[in-house]
Structures are given as structure tokens and as C-alpha cells.
Amino acid sequence: MTLPKATQTVVAAAREHGLEIEVSEFPKGTKTAADAAAAIGCNVGAIVKSLVFTVDDSPVLALVPGDLHLDTDRLAAVVGGGSAQRATLDAVRSATGFAAGGTPPFGHASRLPVYADNLLRRHDPVWAAGGTPTTVFPLAIADLDRVVGPEWVDISQ
Fold this sequence. Notes:
By secondary structure, the chain is an alpha/beta fold. It contains five helices and eight strands, in the order αβαββαβαβββαβ. The chain is globular, with a radius of gyration of 14 Å.
């Protein structure tokens, strides 16, 4: 299988951290957590939503289980800012190098502060976007912690 260029970027970033990932491609798409869970055959809570938000105009990455919603007030509080809002599609691509809906938890164009919701730990492995809305890969929680180095917080509702 020839992987999309964005997915090749994710695979290369994983290798830089000593991690070999096994990417699955779903041509019908895995843009939403429910779509991804249905395609993979896993619990929707095992899907990692990689969400770019701006907190006081600075981009941050929030990793949230697919069955939960990000609480923007909690995110702003843990970041130490006044307010958080979803980044524009252009801001997501600028900060990460990836399109929204396919943003992986690592391999970004710029280094972002990363906040992972503690409830992601309910499932191991979790499944993350592979750089496109049609690619995903499993990721052990220990590898997520090692490669991404997120701050583990309570940011979901």
C-alpha cells in the first residue's frame, strides 16, 4: 500500500522516536471518532481526537477520547489562559502541517503544548489519525506518553 504523503510524514516522525506504527487506510474516511471506531471495530472511547485550539491566541493540542467532548473552560484553565476556542482550519494546518480531521498526535510542523485527557487511559491501545481523514494507527498509551509527552489533565466533559 502506498501511503499518502501526510501519512508518510507521521510514519517518519514515529520512526524518529523509535516507534514503528502500523497504519490502516479506510477510503470511505474516518473523519469523525464514530466513523473511525466503526471502521476499526473498536470502542469510540479508544479513538484519540487530536484537537487544535487557541488559548489566548496561542495554539495548543488537546488529545481527547472520541466519546467525550473537550471542555474549553477546563482547557483554558490548565493552560493558564482566559479563553479557548477551536482553531480555524488554516490555523490547524499552519500549526501542525496537517488538515483538521486527520491531525495526528505527533509529527507536527511546529512544537505545540499538548494536553491529554486522563480518560484516554481507559483504553490501551488507542487509535489516532494518521495524517489524513482516511488513515489511522494504534498507539499504546506508554508510547503516546513517551513520544508526545503530554501533560495529563482533566479536560473532557
